[in-house]
C-alpha cells in the first residue's frame, strides 16, 4: 500500500516548531518545544527504519503534553501508532496516555517524506538559520544518519 504522504517542519518562533504530517486524507499537527529533541528523535527513528530496525520511536515534547510515535516494521510496511501524553515529564504519564491513531503505511514512502521535509527545511533556513530561529543547533548527526552520510548510532 503506497499512499501519498506530505510532511512539513515549521519553525514557529524561538524554541517552538510544528510537525505537520498529511497521510491518506488526514492531517496531523504536533507542536513541539525546545525542551525535548523532537526533530532529532524523528530523524533517528526514520534512520532506524532505513537501516533495518524492527521497532523504534520518536518523542515529540511540548509543554506540558507530548506525543510518542511508535514504529514497528513489517516487511515493506511499518505499523505506526501515535500516543498522546498529558504530561511528558510526569512519572505517571502512561496512566493517562491516549492512542490517537494507528495505521500501516509504506515504509519507503514514509522515509522519503521525512527526507523531503528535511530538504525543504534546509532549503528554507539552512543549518545556521535553523539554529538562529529555533534556538538550538541543527541536528546534524541524526540528519546525516538518515541520509547515509554519517555513522550508526550507538545503542
What are the salient characteristics of this protein?
32% helix, alpha+beta, disordered C terminus, 37% strand, 3-stranded antiparallel beta sheet, 155 residues
Q: Tally the helices.
A: 3
> What low-confidence regions span 5 or more consecutive residues with pLDDT below 50?
151-155
Helical content class:
25-40%
Q: Kindly report how far apart the N and C termini lie.
A: 31 Å
Average pLDDT taken over every residue:
90
Radius of gyration from CA coordinates: 15 Å
The main sheet comes to: 4 strands, antiparallel
Quote the beta fraction.
35-45%
How many individual β-strands? 7
Tell the overall outline: globular
Structural class label: alpha+beta
Strand order, sheet with most strands: 4-5-6-7
H/E element order: EEEHEEEEHH
Task: Give a verbal description of the structure.
This protein has helices at residues 38-50, 107-134, 140-147; strands spanning 5-11, 16-23, 26-33, 55-61, 66-74, 77-85, 98-106. The termini are far apart. The strands form 2 sheets. Strands 4-5-6-7 form a 4-stranded antiparallel β-sheet. Helix 1 runs antiparallel to helix 2 (107-134) and helix 1 runs parallel beside helix 3. Helix content is 32%, strand content 37%. A hairpin with a 4-residue loop joins strand 1 and strand 2 (16-23). Residues 151-155 have low confidence and may be disordered. The protein has 155 residues and is α+β, with helices and mostly antiparallel strands.
Amino acid at each position: 500500500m503506497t499512499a501519498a504522504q506530505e510532511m512539513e517542519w515549521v519553525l514557529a518562533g524561538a524554541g517552538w516548531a510544528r510537525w505537520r504530517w498529511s497521510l491518506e486524507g488526514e492531517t496531523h499537527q504536533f507542536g513541539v518545544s525546545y525542551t525535548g529533541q523532537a526533530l532529532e528523535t524523528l530523524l533517528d527513528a526514520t534512520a532506524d527504519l532505513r537501516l533495518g530496525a524492527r521497532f523504534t520511536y520518536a518523542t515529540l515534547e511540548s509543554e506540558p503534553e507530548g506525543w510518542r510515535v511508535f514504529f514497528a516494521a513489517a516487511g515493506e510496511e511499518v505499523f505506526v501508532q501515535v500516543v498522546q501524553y498529558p504530561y511528558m515529564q510526569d512519572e505517571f504519564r502512561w496512566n493517562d496516555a491516549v492512542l490517537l491513531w494507528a495505521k500501516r503505511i509504506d515504509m519507503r514512502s514514509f522515509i522519503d517524506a521525512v527526507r523531503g521535509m528535511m530538504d525543504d527545511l534546509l532549503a528554507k533556513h539552512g543549518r545556521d538559520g535553523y539554529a538562529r530561529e529555533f534556538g538550538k543547533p541543527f541536528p546534524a548527526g541524526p540528519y546525516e544518519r538518515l541520509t547515509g552520510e554519517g555513522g550508526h548510532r550507538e545503542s
